[in-house]
Amino acid sequence: MPKKRKVHSLTGRIDLRLMHQAFKAVKRNRGAAGIDKVSIKMFEANLDENLVALKKDLKAGTFRPRPLRRKMIPKGPGTSKLRPLGIPVVRDRVAQEVIRRLLAPIFEPQFHDASFGFIPKRNCHQAIQRVLELHGQGYRVVLDADIQGFFDNIPHQVIMTAVAAEVADGNILRLVEKFLTAGVMENGVFKPTTIGTPQGGVISPLLANIVLNHLDWKLHEAGYRFARYADDFVVVCQTRQQAQEALTLVKHVLETDLGLFLSPHKTEITTYGKGYQFLGFFLSSRSRRMRDKSVQKFKAKVRELTIRKRNLDQKAIAKLNQVIRGTAQYFGTSFSTNRWNFQKLDSWIRMRLRGMKLKRKNYNDNRKLRVGYFRRKLGLLTLEEFCTYFDRHGKAHRVIPRRGATSIGVAR
């Protein structure tokens, strides 16, 4: 068996063209300023000088990342639990994107076909469609697994070992390690990071996939069917005994090889008949709809935009349409069964808007401000109009509600 060859000369590939590509990607993703309060616009004001200086530091090994700005964000509506977000400075985000672009072509061809997160031409919908296809083939027992605090608990040594297995460029390896150990600033106090990869870091999703790729291939070697999106994954089996054996394997690989643990409260063995949650959906043999938590998250966004004391104008509708479009495009797929839920949410949104317009909540106001007013005069989108389905000829159609009724149109 020939000896595996590692990649050596990655540092030599860092040039101004790559630097500009990395900056464009960072700018496209937007994001807040880090601890130095330098925004993307401010960094761009002296772009060429900043990129030349950054390139020199990256190639010479003199680059030193700044600590991340720690920001706590709610885990979801109706909960007081917070999720830590680490925001690098713009300069460091560009540096991370440069390294990500160098590492991705090496590792992405090695990722398992059942891994769908943060990989070009793969997405959440494909992961869901995979498990639905497997359910149709008779794999109806589900191991719904949750890794406890995944991003915050990946041991640095596990990450570095996985990267070093393919990369022999010492400078690149040191840069990755510097990103991991940059530390965070929280309430003006520096805290070192000795474990985990920060949520918010540009390179974090790739490192997560590199680590969990080991688990994917262990499951594959054992003959299991599964789908994974970052740290969210399900294993589908034909019997409960197989699912129990899969759970034992997953625990062993995570704990022994990766230094990670499953959450005992969120990991369960269930069935497609009873249903389970995956990537924002509730999937069961009877429906594929928005999970309750996703509905509450959507309502929280709408409530924030439809406070009664504000004016109902085109600016408010434009912001609301952005939220509606984003939610509908994700949940209004051909495999989903969300139309009835969407109708209820559309009705609830119009109730909120009537309250904004008339500064009160009264069911008699439904006659004063009818559906046509919101659609034709204000240009309000509806969730329902994004629902799609396929007819018996395989042609895609979209539901188009008009004047309170519904008609069917071909999706374009």
Layout of helices and strands:
Layout: H1 16-29, H2 40-45, H3 47-60, E1 68-74, E2 82-87, H4 90-107, H5 124-136, E3 141-146, H6 150-153, H7 156-164, H8 170-180, E4 184-186, E5 189-191, H9 204-221, E6 225-229, E7 232-237, H10 240-258, E8 268-271, E9 276-278, E10 281-283, E11 288-290, H11 292-305, H12 314-331, H13 339-358, H14 365-368, H15 371-377, E12 388-390, E13 396-402, E14 405-410
Parallel strand pairs: 1-4
Antiparallel strand pairs: 1-2, 3-7, 3-8, 4-5, 6-7, 9-10, 10-11, 12-13, 13-14
Would you mind describing this structure in some detail?
This protein has 412 residues and is an alpha+beta fold. The chain contains 15 helices and 14 strands. It has helices at 16-29, 40-45, 47-60, 90-107, 124-136, 150-153, 156-164, 170-180, 204-221, 240-258, 292-305, 314-331, 339-358, 365-368, 371-377; strands at residues 68-74, 82-87, 141-146, 184-186, 189-191, 225-229, 232-237, 268-271, 276-278, 281-283, 288-290, 388-390, 396-402, 405-410. The strands form four sheets. A four-stranded mixed sheet has the order 2-1-4-5, with no helix packed on it. A four-stranded antiparallel sheet has the order 6-7-3-8, with helices on both faces. A three-stranded antiparallel sheet has the order 9-10-11. A hairpin with a 2-residue loop joins strand 6 (225-229) and strand 7 (232-237). Helix 1 packs across helix 4, helix 7 packs antiparallel against helix 8 and helix 7 crosses helix 9 (204-221). The longest helix has 20 residues, at 339-358. The radius of gyration is 24 Å and the shape is globular. The chain starts with 15 loop residues before the first helix and ends with a strand.
